[in-house]
Design a protein that fits this description.
By secondary structure, the protein is mainly α. The chain has one domain. About 85% of the residues lie in helices and about 0% in strands. The longest helix is centred in the middle third of the chain and has 45 residues, at about 20-65. It is rod-shaped, with a radius of gyration of 28 Å.
Amino acid sequence: MKLLAAFLLLSLMACTQESSPEGRSKIRDQSLETMIDSLHQQNKVMLDSIHSLSNRVKALELQKIQ
């Protein structure tokens, strides 16, 4: 009986999210989603910087023409 109880306890402890393929895929998906969100934010910042630099170049070109 003690052996059965110990076996059940160990089997329940082994059933974590990392131990099943579905759990591992959920963890992987969450990690990928976090990385994609970070890349979207970086992309937005870079596009804002490019837009700002483009405006500065246009302003300098207008000054040069005048």
